[in-house]
Amino acid sequence: MRLRWPFPVFYPSARAAVLLALAAPLALVVAAASPGAWIAAPALGGALLVMVLLDALLAPMLADLRVIVPDGGEVGAPIALTLLAGFRAEAPRAAPQAALALDPRLAPGGRLVARLTRDNGAWSARIETTPTRRGTGPVTAVWLRWEGPLGLACRQVRRDLAEVIRIRPNIAPARSPALQLFLRDAQFGMVARRIRGEGTEFEALAEYEPGMDRRRIDWKSSARHARLYAKEYETERNNQIVFAFDCGQTMCEPIGGLPRIDRAVTAALTTAWIALGAQDRVSVYGFAARPQVMSPFVTAPRDFRRLQDAAAALDYSTEQPNFTLALSTLAARLRRRSLVVVFSEFTDPTSAEMMIESMRRLVERHRVIFVVMADAELADFVSAPVKTAQDAAMAVTATTLQHQRTLVLQRLRRAGILVVEAPHQHIGNRLLDAYLTVKRAGSLG
After folding, report:
1. Strands (E), 92-227
2. Are residues 251 and 218 part of one domain?
3. Is residue 41 in a domain?
4. Does 196 score more than 60 pLDDT?
5. How far is CA 167 from CA 48, 309, 317, 413, in A?
């Protein structure tokens, strides 16, 4: 039942509905006992309606309703919206209830509900939600409902909103204290100086000391000077690193509550932060059926936000990726030997065949890392207890798919590609280890 009045919209409350439901059998009993008293039933209903209208008129008037929306957030990280309400007269008898209409990527179903609490005379509510996808999420409207003094009617107002929340990739791992401590203690940092130690570019000779790698001893120089001398090398810098993201259908499926592509973006940006600190050059590349985004190379940590913006522009796609077009386009844009980190996913050897052939051509000139997240569902099906024939069939199918997956990764390794496979919660650390391994090996210069 919805009634309109020259005042804000009001509704009968749950209490009024209960009273009406109780009045109906009572009226039947009265009519059965005394047929002449049938008029009591409509009179009772009319009295209840009058009380509902009176309660709506006596409900306090709304003076102000505001919604404080954050400018942005990160996918998978909680964000908070604040509702503030003020009334002209006395406060409502019960806590007002508010509802927000917003983009489904900000909240499941595109709706948030909360009850306001009173503090120092002001009504407010803090609503937390966790975005599940990147992009621009509008907050379109807010509703507020409060009861009258009798609790028989509820007033309700609606306010249109034009707020927007921009959801960026999650870079929480890059801000973690452990990673900052690693950057501080690493051999490379943001200080512009020549760093001696691991690497491949010869820097100088130094007198050999116990604990040095004996393979670095320069025997010819040691023979000339009649004492042991060891070679020192300079850590490689100014390498080009491209993070290439498959934005196709499989990568957009959720894993651990978030799309695989967002897990990959978080891992890539964490490694990119380390690479910029090592004075390497970093770019972001996205593709599905055709290339989507390729950012310019970023060369300094202060420009890290440009990489984050480029990663935020990676769109979710329902198409299958075209590896031949994507990787050939990328190879044509790279003018020098680079480290290409490819994030992708495959479901069977047939769908992976074109990917393998395209990456084989890419590895002829560049160093390639292939990153894939371990499929926990397959492992669960394989290890699950077999109780029925369906369980057995699922276990056999999962074992076959797991074996095929292993064969594809072995073919990639034989092609000279460094494969990183780990659960999604550890993929960032494994990728960082792979990057440091490649850098120390000096295979990019």
Report:
1. 97-102, 111-115, 117-119, 122-129, 135-147, 153-168, 196-197, 201-207
2. no
3. yes
4. no
5. 49, 10, 17, 36
Query: Is 5 in the same domain as 136?
Result: yes
- Closest by CA position to 245, among listed 260, 229, 226, 234: 260
User: What is the extent of the structural domain holding 363?
Assistant: 172-179+236-441
Q: Which of 177, 202, 179 is nearest to 189 (CA)?
A: 179
264 in the same domain as 225: no
Q: Strand locations in 88-121, DSSP E?
A: 97-102, 111-115, 117-119
Where residue 184 falls (left for φ over 0; alpha for ψ -120 to 50; beta otherwise) is alpha
The Cα–Cα gap between 69 and 52 comes to: 35
214 and 265 in a single domain? The answer is no
Q: Phi and psi of 176, rounded to 5°?
A: -65, 145
| Cβ neighbourhood burial of 91 (10 Å; 0-12, 13-18, 19+) | middle
Domain end, chosen from 141, 168, 195, is at 168
pLDDT in tens, 356-369: 999 999 998 999 99
Q: Are 138 and 163 in contact (CB under 8 A)?
A: yes
Average pLDDT over residues 75-103: 86
Summarize pLDDT for 138-186 with one digit per residue, the tens. Answer: 999 999 988 877 777 788 888 999 899 999 998 888 777 666 656 655 5
pLDDT tens-digit series, residues 380-423: 777 778 888 887 888 888 788 888 888 899 999 999 999 999 99
Q: DSSP H helical segments within 340-388, as ranges? A: 349-363, 376-383
Give the range with max mean pLDDT: 10-14, 41-45, 148-152, 370-374. Answer: 370-374
